[in-house]
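User: Last request for today: this protein with FE2/S2 (inorganic) cluster, please.
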Amino acid sequence: MKTETVKCCCQNSEDGEKYQEIANIIDLYKDKKGSLIQILHLAQEIYGYLPLKLQKFIAASLEIPLSEVSGVITFYSFFSTKPRGEHTIRVCLGTACYVRGGKKLIERLQEILKIQAGDTTNDGKFTFEIARCIGACGLAPAMMIDDVVYKQVNVNKLESILSKY
Ligand code: FES
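Assistant: Here's the final one, the structure of the complex with FE2/S2 (inorganic) cluster:
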């Protein structure tokens, strides 16, 4: 196990272990072309999200500007700089879903979850996001919870869908 590039800025031992794991991944990937996205993916898997201090750590370890790291994170919607919920709800607002009631699903979910799109519930259970087409246009409106796609979602069924999680 390589450890030479570890410059840990952790606050507790759990954080320290995660940073160590991420440092090991950086060692493995840093000489490979185009490895930044791969490193960020794995870092998000390990840490759960990509806060600024972790972005700084990755930039310093790779000897690249912080702006390069944060630029990639901002560009790709699958990267998150805030803690995420246990489950991710994505409601489609692509054209087909929009005209068939996607907006109503969003309004109702905001009421049920008591958060706005882009946020995570206080209990850390759900992160709620808006998506642009999830490939179920023929059966709109559609939404996803983690990897499960729900098609022709009726606004009245949302509570029973959420209760499964
Ligand atoms: S527009 Fe919603 S699934 Fe395609």
